[in-house]
Amino acid sequence: MANILVVGTQWGDEGKGKVVDCLTEKANVVARYQGGNNAGHTVVIGDTEFILHLIPSGILHDDKVCIIGNGVIIDPSALIEEIEELQRRGIRVEENLRVSKSAHLIMPYHILMDRAKEARKGEKKIGTTGRGIGPTYADKAARSGIRVVDLFWPEYFKERLAANLADINETLVHLHNTEVLDFNEVYDKCMVYRDKLERYVDDTDILINEYIKEGKTILYEGAQGTLLDVDHGTYPYVTSSNATSGGALTGLGIGPRCIDEVFGVVKAYTTRVGGGPFPVELFDNTGNLLREKGGEYGATTGRPRRCGWLDMVVLRHAVRVNGLTGLIITKLDVLDGFSKLKVCVGYKYRDSLLTEFPKELPIIQECVPHYEEYDGWAEPTNSVTHYNDLPDNAKAYINMIEEKLSVPVVMLSTGKRRTDILYLRDF
Ligand code: IMP
Q1: pTM for the whole thing?
Q2: Mean pLDDT throughout 47-59?
Q3: Hey, whose CA ends up nearest to atom 8 of ligand 1?
Q4: Which residue has the higher pLDDT, 427 or 346?
């Protein structure tokens, strides 16, 4: 298999976890490059469900190296919890997981700041996952962050922690009127985390480049989705990292030629969780039906996801900014039984029809979807094992997506289970 990057094309929750799990069979290494435990990747094996937040879903295979790259931010207590939970369930973590020395830590004050800032925003809140993501990436850019490697240099760590806490505690008290953090308590906890994580910590940039040189196959795993990317998403209603394919280069320390294929995961309809513009959002029974049939509730926060039809304006943008070479359509089975399917092909904005995703938030907020309508199919798709056996209208729907985006569909997911997958190309 080539070195494949898997990226979300919409607002996250496209089903990347399952896709990565399936592709992992053909890879040696799975590497995650951005985000933190705001992500939630659900994988169902047999009757067992795993929800992973930080560790690549490749960990569910016995013999694959899983890398958490420098672009990922790590809440050490969440990582330890995830490791221990997987180990309790018989998964080999110690042998397979490597964590970058350069990854930044989500500290307890980042979580407090995230929540306090959101509370102050009232109606204008982003609807973050409350995991401290924004404040941690902000500290990284402001050069006041603390990295995994710093845990192993106690005096240096103490110095940075003390400086940060002095600032943060003042802000927490005066601006947000919340509790302050005690230096010794935070420090002691971090030293416990250090001891538990030491065996996983590595120079992952060196490691991954060695693997590439040796000809090992790498699967690059993105979290969130294109429209949540801090540069290419619906700013400011985005996460704080580069979820698009470009994030893999800086987030792992690899060159552009280390990626052979970029596959965009496309949910057969569209969802968004949290605040911000969402032009195809449905407020009617169809939206409710998609939510219930698709189990559209956040894997991390349990929040109901906003639902709508497939949005080609979003997908055209995703094809371009990620350089997609293949599409992976997921949750096709959720559309089973709809007599008509709508697809948004442009946005009506005042007197014009827009076909490219606008950069201006006030414009996006005013956009009304312009739909084309397609016939649906009644037959279930999740028991189908060959593409040719899919209902004709399902095949027509897939062809329509390929044609409109000029990118081939390479895989189809038709259900939750590992086995509900169709490969349309040989890997
Ligand atoms: P944050 O990443 O927690 O700061 O949240 C910023 C925005 O991204 C919010 O709208 C979240 O709901 C959204 N978000 C973050 N991670 C995910 C994800 O994995 N799936 C879907 N939405 C996400």
Answers
A1: 0.95
A2: 91
A3: 239
A4: 346
